[in-house]
Amino acid sequence: KRTFLQFLGKVDDLGDAVTGPFNSNGNLGKMKGKVQSLTMRQSTDSYNRDGSVKETKTVTSTMAFFLDYVTPEFAGFTGGLQYVYVTKLYDGHHSVPFNDAYYAFNEKYHVLNEFYVNYNAKALGMGKTNLRAGRQIINYDFFKKAALRHKEAAAEGVVFSTKDIKDTELSVGHIWKYSSFASRDYPPYPTQFMNIGDVMRVPYRTAGATFASASYSGISNFKLTTYDWILYNLFNVQGNKIEYFMGEGDFKVVPRVHFAWERDAGRMAKDGLGKIESYALETAVALKYKRSYLEWGWLSIADNKRDGKVHNFQHPFDSSFTSDCEKGGDFTRQFNAGAQTTHLRAFLEWDCFSFVTTYYYTIHQKAAVNGATDRGTRDQQIEADLGVQITRNMSAKATFIYGQLGTNMTDRKYLEKKDARIWITYAF
Asked: Which residues, 6+ apart, have CB-to-CB distance to 391 below 8 Å?
């Protein structure tokens, strides 16, 4: 045991030896990197045209190499980049016409995920104010950076952000291209940076998306957030979120309400995906102790009937709605018109271990099952993550997912999804 721990210590020292001399020289900037393996096994049911059930199995493994670099500062300016290279270690050939890696969104690729110039306004007395242009990783209520495979989602654009106003966080920006977490160049989850119109799969290109987001915590125990995203010639989404923090010390109770509405804009209704008119309302309450918590919540998507058409809630960049964090994707169809989803999540952290599990249960007022509209359809999914920090630089995580799609109250028929993933990461 002692020899093994000494070996792990040497492994950490190796990573430090790679970046340490470079970073200790203040004239060269800062560099870091990581190596990460991801092995996946999936089994997903779907319907054939004749109504029979087809099972698609995939087994795939990849290795990713990350390199992050930030230049030295000059007159408030810095430059940064993140290069990601993913190679395929194993690709099974099962009941699919192409390959397993394609269907599992775990293909080989390489991309310059970040490449930006940043200006920090500390010379003007605003050290928490930045203007950043280029490819960059961003994280907002309607744009999540979640890394469900290897890399985090990123955008190409210009973003102004500041925290210099007391109790306020403000961001304004415009993006014209999007790169998702997935390892496959196919909308709506492209690896390479793609025009927003292509991401939405409309037959025309767009001018991108302009957004604004503001949070205010100056009212005792409250945090208020409002945001607006205008996706040109597509749709507009406006959202508001209220969080209230009750309790003192390590234990807190945090109720939350998050509401967003969408309307089509420009050419969308005529030349794009049709008319959009949707609402999303999520209510949740979390019981928190230190960094561990238990949360229950409910997400309701409006069932619009005024024009006799179904308007699903659009979320091309993923969102901060809890049900939008499903690692199995939108398997429970939780953003379909009329969907009512409840979730229960638990997160525990002790020593070098972390564990999180989430259960989703969706009731559909309108749902397409094998081409038919079926009121009362049920979907459900459970996810579990177990992570361990092995050494200072090495970590591992296992994810397990099981879902049932289309469980009906009368005949109990459903499709299944089974998913297992293992990440091993070495950072340096």
From this structure: 8, 9, 11, 12
Residue 2 has, within 13 A of its CA and on its CB side, a CA count of 0
CA distance 241 to 224: 6
pLDDT (tens digit per residue) in 26-52 = 789 999 999 999 999 999 888 778 777
Cα–Cα distance for residue pair 6/2, rounded to 1 Å: 6
pLDDT, tens only, 249-304: 899 999 999 999 999 999 998 888 788 889 999 999 999 999 899 999 999 998 76
Residue 164's identity, in one-letter code, is D
Place of tokens 């290897």: 150
Q: Are 61 and 107 in contact (CB under 8 A)?
A: no
Model's pTM, two decimal places?
0.90
Which token pair is 278? 């949707």
Instruction: Quote the longest CA-to-CA distance of the chain.
Output: 71
Three-state SS at 5: helix
Q: Are 275 and 265 in contact (CB under 8 A)?
A: no
